[in-house]
Amino acid sequence: PNPGALCLNSSNTFEVTLSARDQRTGNTGGGLAIPQNDLFGYFSIPALTSNAANPEVFVKVIDGRPINGRYWVFYGGLTDLEYTITVRESATRRARSYSKAAGSACGGFDTEAF
Predict the structure, then answer these.
(1) Is 5 helix (H, G, I), strand (E, B) or coil?
(2) What is the pLDDT of residues 87-101, one digit of tens each?
């Protein structure tokens, strides 16, 4: 297992990674994956925060196929850092990326992801 990747949704596995940048210093760092269950987990960013236990960004992948035939991606940040989440479908290697600008708040969702 890759400590920088969440593996979500065991019925159709998705690998989720995170990269971040501190707009104040210009330093960058990868996310440390902290899985919670089959559907969601979060990332800390110890290279930037010096705290591996501090949750910074949450991600979940939901099977929305009964509704629209797609998998859905939801994410939210508890940080003002700039970050990019990359979600890769393991079977097809298709990927989507979602970015949050430095200094902004909240997160987003994609109900047409895969």
Answers:
(1) strand
(2) 999 999 999 999 999
The CA radius of gyration of the chain, in Å to the nearest whole number, is 14
Bridge partners (DSSP) of residue 73 are 61, 110
In the beta sheet, which residues pair with residue 6? 16
Share of the chain above pLDDT 90, in %: 89
Phi, psi angles (nearest 5°) of residue 66 = -65, -20
DSSP 8-state secondary structure symbol assigned to residue 31: P
Q: What is the pTM of this model?
A: 0.93
What is d(CA 99, CA 96) in angstroms, rounded to the nearest whole number? 10
How far is it, in rounded angstroms, from Cα 51 to Cα 60? 22
Alpha helices per DSSP H over 1-114: 46-49, 65-68
Range list of β-strands (E), the chain = 5-8, 14-21, 28-30, 32-35, 40-44, 57-63, 71-77, 82-89, 95-100, 107-110
Q: Is 24 exposed, middle or buried (0-12, 13-18, 19+ CB in 10 A)?
A: exposed
